[in-house]
Amino acid sequence: MRGSCKKVKAIGWLCAFLVTSSYAVDDPKYLVRDVINERKDIISYVDTNKMARIILGKKRNSFTKEQMEEFVDMFEVVIAQSYNRFILNSRRKIDLLSTKYSGNIAVVSGRLDGLNVKFMLYLDKQQEWKIYNLVIDGINYGILYRTIYKESIEMCGVEEFLLKLRKKLGS
After folding, report:
1. 76 within 8 A of 39, measured Cβ to Cβ
2. 50: burial class by Cβ within 10 Å (0-12, 13-18, 19+)?
3. Is 27 helix (H, G, I), strand (E, B) or coil?
């Protein structure tokens, strides 16, 4: 009987963990709160494919399938490094201020280390919230990367752009 109670408690705990660990919830602010405050690896909560398509815009049509896959892989490293520099080095937890919705898009606003931050998320086909853009103190990182990458691609072409990105990342 005693063993049965432990099993029931363990199953109850596991179910509670699985339910609270899922971000297919009504308010994506919980995903943002947990990623920031618990210093989680952000990449599993970011849709780097969507970010890459948005950032490259029409320039993505210049990429072969293989080049696009390589870019997405390298861009994932860029995102992780940026996140590590800003979020993981932060001394405080995020103060969440609001969540605004427009269809399956949400913008979670907050303050972190005195800076205004906004996370743009969308609800994917699996009904999970995914981050696709970040604004820190008015700097929209999607637009920033788009501007930098677009100029580089226009100046030197896709292959040279990828070569420079490889060198920058040390890969």
Report:
1. no
2. middle
3. coil
Give the DSSP letter of residue 21: H
The answer, yes or no, to whether residue 24 has pLDDT greater than 60, is no
pLDDT at 94: 78
Domains of the chain: residue spans and CATH: 25-169 (3.10.450.710)
DSSP state at residue 109: E
Q: How far is residue 61 from each of residues 42, 57, 72, 84, 163, measured CA to CA in Å?
A: 28, 8, 14, 31, 18
- Is residue 153 within 8 Å of residue 62, measured between CB atoms? yes
Give the Cα separation of 48 and 8 in Å (integer).
Answer: 39
Residue 1: predicted pLDDT: 43
Distance, in Å, from the CA atom of 163 to the CA atom of 27, rounded to the nearest integer, reads 40
92 has pLDDT over 70: no
Cα diameter, the chain: 73
The residue behind tokens 């993505």 is: 60
Are the C-beta atoms of 49 and 63 separated by less than 8 Å? no
What span, in angstroms and rounded, lies between the C-alpha atoms of 79 and 146?
Answer: 13
